[in-house]
Amino acid sequence: MAVPFIQSLFDRGHDYQTVSQIERGLPQSPTRLDKRYDDKIDQSQESCPRSRINPRIIADVTIGLSDGLTVPFALTAGLSALGDTNVVIYGGLAELIAGGISMGLGGYLGAKSEHEAYNAALAETKSIVSARDEQVISQMVQSTFEKYHFPPTILDSMTSNLLAQPEELVEFLMRFHHNLADSDYTSSRALICGATISGGYFVGGLIPLLPYLFFEHIQQAFITSIVVMALALFMFGWLKTSLVGETNRWICLKNAIQMTFLGGIAATAAVECVKLLGG
């Protein structure tokens, strides 16, 4: 994987402007690089189908739903010991609203901090490139490819090639040296993260609460809530595995069982803690 990438860097001497035009959607005349660039895209699309949903969004949904399916369930299970369905419903709804807001704010602030850290790294990288500090840049490039054990002559040639293209050098250092992709740190990321986690928490917590809305006897509602929560955990474990592109049913089944088992342990532990505190 590394050798074709290094070879492509050497070819940028007279073709780099053409690559930039292709990426920006500007008109250009057909060249040898155009055909190679298009062939690489076609091969990538054929051999590596992309996931339809951003993995980071799936991670946010997982955080929200997993917490929502366990924490409110433990609360409603503890409140069900009082024997009053209304107390369970209103207490559960209050926890859902407060927990959803809290989880959403946590996700928003966390993603915002990541965005600020990305901007700080970007500003520092631009400053280094603008100063044309070849020694520092050379060290950064060498540390990036240190594990591949390339000869110093190749790394020096690569550094010289990149220094001729400051904008591309900044992008190269951000993506390969800092391992930070700009698409993961957009300004809207914080809002999307907060809304996704908050919504996932509310939906996940509402599922085990629904039986208390339809059953008069609280014991029946509690048992039904356990069954519904287990089914929801199983379905969610299967769905989130398939959404990331996994087609093996056994792996989907294993992850679904794992999600159900871990969620069940968390919910059981929470319920037992409530019972111990209640004497």
Automatic annotation (TrEMBL):
GO function terms (MF aspect): manganese ion transmembrane transporter activity
Signal sequence annotation: none
Annotated GO CC locations: endomembrane system
GO BP field: intracellular manganese ion homeostasis
Segments passing through the bilayer: 190-215, 221-239
Keywords attached to this entry: Membrane, Transmembrane, Transmembrane helix
Subcellular location, record wording: Endomembrane system
Entry's family note: Belongs to the CCC1 family.
Protein name per UniProt: Calcium transporter
